[in-house]
Design a protein that fits this description.
single chain, 137 residues, elongated, two-stranded antiparallel ribbon, 4 strands, alpha+beta
């Protein structure tokens, strides 16, 4: 089975292989082609930034980084689901967020931590971010 990816941006499509050639090289028989849109998840850079922030918060509060991470998810990502006919609230997971949602979540985390703990978390464009990244990366 061959997988060919298609990236379409601003009306132009780019493929990872020549689709016409791939079809021409198929052996005789019946084939099914499925086109499935891939969801763009949060970027690894966004997740790294969140982990650095968690490390900084843990250092300031004396708590474990995993506990801080769970606390942030519990406070800022809860949502309701129906399980066995009952509506229950569950914690979300940042890695399930799309890139735009993760950007909004990071803003929410930054503001929430400043408001509740008084800790200012730096952004990558901040002047001293490199020093922060070296310490918490």
């Amino acid at each position: 089975m061959e997988t060919i990816t298609i990236d379409k941006r601003e009306g132009l499509a780019e493929t990872s292989a020549d689709i016409g050639l791939a079809i021409a090289l198929l052996k005789n028989g019946r084939y099914t082609i499925t086109i499935k849109r891939e969801r763009e998840g949060s970027t690894s850079a966004q997740l790294r930034l969140l982990r650095m922030w968690v490390g900084a918060i843990a250092r300031e509060t004396g708590d474990k980084p995993d506990d801080i991470y769970k606390w942030i998810c519990h406070e800022l990502l809860p949502h309701e689901v129906t399980v066995m006919g009952r509506r229950v609230t569950v914690d979300g997971n940042p890695s399930d967020l799309r890139k735009e949602q993760m950007t909004a979540f990071l803003d929410l985390v930054r503001n929430y931590v400043l408001r509740t703990l008084g800790i200012r978390l730096p952004l990558p464009e901040d002047r001293l971010f490199e020093q922060f990244a070296q310490r918490y990366a």
